[in-house]
Amino acid sequence: MDYADSDRAQELADRAHELMEEVVLPLERERAGGMAVSSGTIADLREAAREYDIYAPQIAAEYGGMGESFRDVLPVFEEAGRSLLGAAAMRVDAPDEGNMHLLELAGDEVQKETYLEPLVEGEIASGFSMTEPLDGAGSDPKMIRTTAEKNAAEGASGDPRETTASRDGDEWVIDGHKWWTSNGVEADVLIVLARTDPDAHPYEGCSLFLVPADADGVDIVRDVPHMGGGTRGASHAEIVYENVRVPEEHLLGNLNEGFSHAQARLGPARLTHCMRFSGMAQRALEIAKAYLSEREGFGSTLSDKQSLRHRIADAEARLHVARTAIRDAADRIEDGDEARIPVSMCKVFTANVTQGAIDLAVQCCGANGIGKDLPLADFYEAVRKFRIIDGADEVHRRIIARDAFADVNREELEPLTRFGEPNTRRGSGH
Ligand SMILES: Cc1cc2nc3c(=O)[nH]c(=O)nc-3n(C[C@H](O)[C@H](O)[C@H](O)COP(=O)(O)OP(=O)(O)OC[C@H]3O[C@@H](n4cnc5c(N)ncnc54)[C@H](O)[C@@H]3O)c2cc1C
User: 385 CB less than 6 Å from ligand 1?
Assistant: First the structure.
């Protein structure tokens, strides 16, 4: 399907496609599904991406990227999503991609030099620590556990499971408990959201901190056992931050503006998830169509069975709508709009469309949808999280519905009869 992407976007997408077809997909087909690739293999893929001139296209050239616009990198992200190895190769992989974007937006020059440039180079990895265990921040991030005190000794609650950051001379002292920090085990630097003003509404009283993973008091408790992620081998860590001291300069962005900085990260990051996952859906359908076109049964190829053709047609149509909506939202972001409602619409719709497409592809390929000779089973495991991360379906529907109900026109119901108020309009004669 062709889209109204710019010439530059198309040129970048062509390079990404070549890299995928000539390097990434052959490697993916060579190796057994579900098995983690080594960091050496990722480094080789990144070297290849550099040779194909399609490495970190979304990052400004001064920090090691290609300086392409958000809208123009969109089809590159889609291409990258066609394999679980594609995004890592082109350095458009979550969570580093979102963290790099945040550092680019909110970091000062020293922070960019210290963390952004090595991240772009692939020399270090990062995590974003926002979600907390069961009684803390989750779908409702306002539930972040905080005691904002200026003096660490007075402010510390003694409970390391509460996430707090308090001023102590020239240092920040962070105490808290996070989980599901993607990359948490591998990360060299963790971006931690902590409460810094207990009297303010959390949206105006939290800040972000850059915490070196080897700082005293950072305890990587475990990689929470989880579905998916095997191929890339990425972790989702539970981390306790206990009396972690970082210098004043490790505040990322402005004091007490952590939520708005996080939102600046999450908005585009939700959309880049949509781009990568729609590429995964497209690949799943490509595999399904190849299988149906070769496999015979009941006197014809399976691709001749109308019930299957119709289901593929529906999946293609839904994917096209998702990809079109993603382009619309990206255009708005490119124009400086936060595009909150369009992004929420894309997130919930694309997640469900992708999950449906992959489920259909698994079904079409029979046992080979379950087997790991094809990447579909890995896709199936990978896609489920998409309906939960960066805001569950219900949270995005809540945002969309709030907007949808904001301009209800009650005049539409004027003709209806209310109890005890007979309708004075003449009947239709029946
Ligand atoms: C693979 C993976 C990677 C992740 N990576 C990170 C990361 O790097 N950093 C980070 O900080 N977090 C990360 N998370 C956490 C993720 O952001 C949260 O899981 C998500 O925000 C939901 O929070 P929760 O798990 O606490 O769900 P809960 O808040 O406990 O909600 C449970 C379920 O209830 C439903 N629900 C919630 N609110 C409503 C509502 N208002 N109305 C109706 N239904 C509702 C939803 O279906 C939701 O899934 C990751 C999670 C996963 C699975």
Answer: yes
